[in-house]
Every structure is written in structure tokens, then in C-alpha cells.
Amino acid sequence: MKILLTGSTGYIGKRLIPVLVEAGHEVICCVRDPKRFNPPESLAKSITVLQLDLLDQGSLEHIPKDIDGAYYLVHSMSSDGDYKSLEETSAKNFRNALKNTSVNHVVYLSGIVNETELSKHLSSRKNVEIELAKGDYNFTALRAGIIIGSGSASFEIIRDLVEKLPIMITPKWLNTKCQPIGISDVMAFLSKSMFNPETYNENFDIGGPDVLTYKEMLLNFGKARNLKRRIYTVPVMTPKLSSYWLYFVTSTSYKLASSLVHSMKVEVVCRDNRINTILGITPLSYNEALKRAFSKIESNEILSSWKDAYSSSGLNFNISEFIQVPSFGCFKDSRTKAIENREASINKIWAIGGNTGWYYGTWLWKIRGYMDKLFGGVGLRRGRTNPATINVGDSIDFWRVLYADKKEGRLLLFAEMKLPGEAWLEFKVVNNKLTQTATFRPLGLAGRLYWYAVLPFHGFIFKGMLKALAE
């Protein structure tokens, strides 16, 4: 069967592609920016890349007419502006575009929306479901709560809180109940629902067997990691204060933290588990899902991470717009050093950031990260998805990967920190020389003053980093 997959570069989409290919489907992967799409070579024969934007009706005309099924895995909870309106427009455009195809079944992954009063985020999800259900095709909505898996936003936030804070003074919404589900089970529900007549024109809640409060989830996580944790809830934390609490303690962005806080005040418990019987799935328990997530982390098998989505930084751009580093009106710090071992130097470059750090002046990098977080930026807490491999579109601390070719020996990063301008950092190995170039395009007088203010630190940090990489 030929299946159209929206959200192919997202956390869920990346993991669903190999599942669908293994099931024998031909997958049309929809992406806004093809340069961010890096599927394994083993999948290349079974997938086709299609560039489209759900907000651009013209681009939707390129959807193949002969598709059999489609997945809608798009949402914008961290976007600027009125994301509810954007999501509704995207859903309508998608539904209308499918009128010109032979699609039989559309599956949408939503959130559990059983309460009368919903957060803005969950209300938008429900509204999208209503719009998609109006189409001339069979429609299935799968509604999930907290998803537990290596690289998921929920898992990483829980991990940050538990591993960093032995004692937590928390808002009262930690007593709200939810029903977490493992990412492997989400994949099973998504793949087995497609083309199953028993799921047509229905909505189902999907969840694991455990109904827990968020507090219980944190404490159980601590037990799984052999960490003793104490949690005290207080009624005085407003949603805004709670959002700042999550933002400063964890690696999440403020917009995502705010959306999550408002959603966490709403109970997300499954109405029933009849979908388990229909599809023959026995979901993992919360503790089993945690063990599986850590197994993937320890073996460096994280297939996707929420941190690599643009929502983790609040930015929204095409990589092609920034891959050509400008020169006019820019400040540059370019340094070149001879290297003894090309392979060793490139391996060091490909391990940069995250737990490895930046090789020199680590304390200064950390201070810059704290300052960025203080002014609403991403800081250093995102780290990196994989300690050894780099793909275009990945996040590395407060940088975004624009270009990465290990054989060529070139890595180009774009800054996502708060700056009065735009910044690039490039590493290029040619023959036996490593060139390291920092480029800054200032925005007005503030940008120029910023460059001269940090110039002494650049001389210290960049010189030391280049030396460490070349040795």
C-alpha cells in the first residue's frame, strides 16, 4: 500500500517510517525542508520524499493521486502566534487536498481530550480531529497522553527533574492523574490501526496499564534510577510561575513548558481499552517503558528526539536559507591550524557538545548557556541526540546543524541562542589543516556592541578549542 506520512521529521514520524517499511508499505514522506530529512540508506528504496507545507495550498497539489492511506502527525504547540488557528487551517487544507486522491483511510495521533474544560493545546488537538473527520475517507483518531520513550519531551522533562533535584517544591498539578504509554506501543497502535475496518470512523484512547499522578511518575522514575527523591506540592504556584519553573530546571523551551503546564492541569485517563482487544496489543507498564527507554539511551539507539524539532528553540526556518554563510556586513573570527591525524580531529569535531563539551573554556560555555536561558533562550541543556553521529537538522546545545559531511570533514552550525544578530560556527578539514570560523551578522548597533564585548572571550575560547581539536 502507498501511505502518505506527514510530520516525517518529527519525533513520532521518524520512528514510524521503518515500521511502515517493514510492514511492506511504500511511504511518501512529507517534509517542509528536505535538507532536514536524513533517512537510513536501508530505507531509501521504499520511501519517496515530498516537499510540502500544509499552510501552502499550492504545495499540496503535489500529493500523489494514488495514495491508499495517510497519517496526520503535525502539531504546532510551541509555535509563535495563534497556533490554534494555524492548526485548524493546516487540517482543512490537508482534508481538501485529499479530495483529489484515492485515499481510503486517514489516521491522526491526538491527545486524550475527555474533560469538558481543556487547555488551549488539547482544545486545538480536538478541533483538528473534528476538521479531519469531515473528509470523504475513513478516519481514525488515536488519543494519547504522556508518551514515554528515549528522546520524547515528556521523558526528558521527567528525567531532568528527577536527576537534578533531590528535593522538589512543586505546583499542585503534580497530583493530576494521567495514563502514560510507551513509544513502542504508540508505534504498534499507529501501524496496526491503518486499514483495519474495526477502527474506521472511530476515536480511541491509547495508554498503558498504569494510571498515575505526575508526582507518582517522578517518584517511580527515581526508584528506577535508584535515586531517593522528596516531592512537596504547594498551592501557590500560578501557571506562569510553574512554566518558568519547568523552563529553568529542564531543557524545554518556555513556550513548550507553558503549553505542557496548562495541559497537565487536565486529567488524561483513557475511557476504556477496547482498542487493545481490537488490535491485539498488550501495552507496557510505566516501569517497563522506562527500562526500554534507558536501554536505548545506553546503547546509543535514540532514533528521534523532540530536541531536534525546531519547536525546541522556537525558531521556524528552512536550512537552505542559512546554509550559505554570508560575508557582507559580517564579523569573522577565522583560525587555521595544522593537524597530525585527520581522522582523529574529525572524530573530535563530530563528538562536540552535549556531554563531551566544547573542549576548552567549559565554564565560559556554561555561563553563556545560563545567560541564554535567563533571556528566554534554549541554553545548553538540549545536549545532543547521539554522542557520535550528526545529521542535518540536529540540535547540539544551542546550535542547529546546517551541514554535516564527515567524509568531506565539514560541519556548519547555526546559533539558536538569543543574539542581537545571527551567528554561524564552521569546522572544515582540508588536507592536513583545520579551519575554524565564527561568523556574526549583527543586527543594528546592539549587534556591533555585542561583538566587540565578547571579542576578548572569543580569542580565549576559540584559540583553545582549535588547539584541542587539532591535537
TrEMBL record:
<dbReference type="Pfam" id="PF13460">
    <property type="entry name" value="NAD_binding_10"/>
</dbReference>
<feature type="domain" description="NAD(P)-binding">
    <location>
        <begin position="7"/>
        <end position="124"/>
    </location>
</feature>
<dbReference type="InterPro" id="IPR051207">
    <property type="entry name" value="ComplexI_NDUFA9_subunit"/>
</dbReference>
<dbReference type="InterPro" id="IPR021295">
    <property type="entry name" value="DUF2867"/>
</dbReference>
<dbReference type="Pfam" id="PF11066">
    <property type="entry name" value="DUF2867"/>
</dbReference>
<dbReference type="InterPro" id="IPR036291">
    <property type="entry name" value="NAD(P)-bd_dom_sf"/>
</dbReference>
<protein>
    <submittedName>
        <fullName>SDR family oxidoreductase</fullName>
    </submittedName>
</protein>
<dbReference type="InterPro" id="IPR016040">
    <property type="entry name" value="NAD(P)-bd_dom"/>
</dbReference>
